[in-house]
Amino acid sequence: MTVQTFIPNGAKAASENTVTQPTHTHDVSIKKLYIETQGCQMNEYDSHRMADLLGDSHGYVLTTDPKEADILLMNTCSIREKAQEKVFSELGRWRKLKEHNPDLIIGVGGCVASQEGDNIQKRAPYVDMVFGPQTLHRLPQMLDQHQDQVEKPKKDKIKLVDISFPDIEKFDFLPEPRVEGFKAFVSIMEGCSKYCSFCVVPYTRGEEVSRPLDDVLAEIAGLAEKGVREISLLGQNVNGYRGETFEGGICTFPELLRLVSEIPGIGRLRYTTSHPLEFSDELIQCYRDLPQMVSHLHLPVQSGSNAVLQAMKRNHTIDVYIEKIAKLRKIRPDMHLSSDFIIGFPGETDEHFEETYQFIKDLDFDHSYSFIYSKRPGTPAAELEDTTPEDVKKERLSKVQHWIKQSSIRKTDAMLGSIQRVLIESVSEKNPDLLVGTADNTRLVTFVGDPSWVGRFAEIEITEIKTLNLVYGELLNLEPDVA
Ligand code: SAH
Ligand code: F3S
User: Which residues lie closer than 8 Å to 262 by C-beta, 6 or more apart?
Assistant: First the structure.
């Protein structure tokens, strides 16, 4: 999620919507697919796979204009109520498009689909297909079934709803990801078994299931061969990864990181999201041993109050979090840390909130996401009494967000004079003498350089701070191409 996972530029907040961008050229004779993605990077990843899949199976090409599309897909998020409500208001707009074009096919996938199932079609009967996060690989068959029954009378039509959790078969049916640029996301696991008391994810995406090790490594090796230099490993709880090995053993997340960093070409490694409880010493050691791992970590904590953490069923105290971060910063003093916070959880008192506020100050986070608690049907926290008035919650949220914003600005300002490792990603659109890349902490770095360096890593000394997310610098060293 949304959620959010999460960071300036490196990730996005749960509330943002994105439209999956086309990589193909325009051709009016070709059938067009429009995908709107809500929520987290897992959904972003899934949307790209849907586009690849329908491109391969039915020749669909992505468009950014829903009006010219033959099929509209909405990949939904249910992490907070607002996100869920947005689905139906957006569908109302799509209904109008279908009134003008009765052949238009509308599909709803993602976590709201998973939660609502055929209720979606009860509320929005013009929706043709409903599929869940674990059944999106069956889209081509669903589409064929839909076409087969287009001519049939309404009473003979079967409802196309598939929101089951058929283990991990999804990945066996998805085509190899297409590559754009030098960065790629690789999903290593699905679902979550942590059952935090406020969260719908275990219900909408199912329990944790890891992809087999060889599949993950083969996908990354393939991406590296196509020029990818930075990999972001994705999952709701990546440090719960337990991938089956070829020999029938189990590979843990720290072991996976070590194996991925041995793949020629992979010069930088990120991952999101992990849980503090399983943020093990072995994982911390990876930061000592693997230069590919960025000095940037998104580690959601949710609250700085032990009482609230307990009610959230996070299963750790703030001391555990503080201790782990201290160990990590000992190895990587330049570590940029970000987190998620839920404000106004049922029972959160002024004192609890002040503990969280102080915790945010003490931990010196870079960027963090914060949300007002949203009651999700079916979760244990939905049963808790919630007496805090909405305006108190809003006040708390704005206090936290103000601090977080100032803290990000301070972190960017502190980059002045520092040396940053940058993945050079493009030539500046405004000035062809300038190159643009990203630092470990996801800030954009601009400097004078040669276009042939694009795709390589460089050490850049930061000489000027332009904005919160943009700094200027000078080349100190260009690394040899890692391939
Ligand atoms: N797997 C990730 C997070 C998934 S959800 C983790 O371990 O934390 C992303 C974020 O959305 C969470 O970290 C939490 O801060 C927020 N979130 C989840 N459920 C929420 C709810 N019911 N109300 C408000 N925010 C919520
Ligand atoms: Fe949700 Fe907690 Fe898992 S926030 S995704 S149940 S770790």
Answer: none
Q: Is 240 in the pocket of ligand 1 (CB under 6 A)?
A: no
Confidence (pLDDT) at 11: 37
Highest mean pLDDT among 22-26, 187-191, 472-476: 472-476
pLDDT in tens, 454-471: 999 999 999 999 999 999
75 lines ligand 1 (CB under 6 A): no
Choose the residue to mutate in 2, 6, 79, 338 for probing ligand 1, maximizing ligand atoms within 8 Å of C-beta: 79
Distance CA 215, CA 417 (A): 42
**Nearest ligand (C-alpha, residue 301):** 1
314 in any annotated domain: no
pTM: 0.90
Domain boundary among 395, 414, 433: 414
In sequence order, the 6+-apart residues with CB closer than 8 A to the CB of 420 are 439, 440, 441, 443, 445, 459, 460, 462, 473
188 and 247 belong to one structural domain: yes
Which atom number of ligand 2 is nearest to the Cα of residue 192?
Answer: 3
Token pair for 117: 């199932």
Pull the structure tokens for residue 371. Answer: 């949300």
Q: Is the dihedral of CA 192, 194, 198, 202 positive or negative?
A: positive
Q: Is the pLDDT of residue 9 over 80?
A: no
Same domain, 423 and 361: no
The ligand with the least distance to the CA atom of 274 is: 1
Is there a single domain that holds both residue 249 and residue 194? Answer: yes
Residue 483 maps to a domain:
no
The verdict on 121 and 224 lying in the same domain is no
DSSP 451: G
**For residue 4, which of 192, 236, 188, 208 has the smallest C-alpha distance?**
236
Q: Which ligand places an atom closest to the C-alpha of 300?
A: 1
Return phi, psi of residue 182, to 5°. -110, 0
The alpha carbon of 243 and the centre of ligand 2 are apart by a number of angstroms equal to 19
Question: Which residue's alpha carbon is nearest to atom 7 within ligand 2?
Answer: 194
Q: Are 406 and 367 in contact (CB under 8 A)?
A: no
In the chain, how many domains are there? 4
The β-bridge partners of 293 are: 269
Neighbour-count burial of 366, counting CB atoms closer than 10 A to its CB (0-12 exposed, 13-18 middle, 19+ buried) = buried
Whose C-alpha lies nearest to ligand 2, atom 1? 199
Cβ of 49 below 6 Å from ligand 2: no
pLDDT tens digit string along 90-121? 999 999 999 999 999 999 999 999 988 888 99
> 400 is in which domain, residue-wise?
322-414
Determine the atom of ligand 1 nearest the C-alpha atom of 3.
Answer: 9
Ligand 1 center to 199 CA (angstroms): 6
Compute the distance between CA of residue 131 and CA of residue 113 in angstroms, rounded to an integer: 6
Q: Is residue 124 part of a domain?
A: yes
